[in-house]
């Protein structure tokens, strides 16, 4: 009984009973990603069915050599999918955040097998429309204008004080001239 339990657990852990996690992928928004399959994985397969969150998005009949791949989900993946007949790999172009999720390949033959991929799409944030200098420039311009006004004010006060001193000097000189000599 103990040996049977160990055999059951080892078969379960090795993936014989169904799904195996074949990859976690992170992709930047706008890039392309290829969910790769080894050619030997699809030997003797009748057809392939790719699913995204349990919805068939691409399928191909491998026995009908002239039949092209079919893409039933036209809305979400419009013109973004390419299914390779030779190896079963699925390429998603111009990926967006709505394409994040679980992708599963069903390899159909006498006994179906599954390959599972988890794709995470990293959203790229747009840089702010205002650059650093669009903010710093006006602040710098205001600072320069204020500095210039301050310098002009100091110069004006000095000249005014000088003029007042000259006027005062002239008044004193006139007073001295009016005084009689003793």
Automatic annotation (TrEMBL):
Every Immunoglobulin domain range: 22-122
Xref: SUPFAM superfamilies: Immunoglobulin (SSF48726)
Membrane-spanning residues: 133-156
The organism's place on the tree of life at top rank: Eukaryota
Family matches, as InterPro entries: Ig-like_dom_sf (IPR036179), Ig-like_fold (IPR013783), Ig_sub (IPR003599), Ig_V-set (IPR013106)
Signal peptide (UniProt feature, chain positions): 1-18
SMART domains (alphabetical): IG
Protein name: Immunoglobulin domain-containing protein
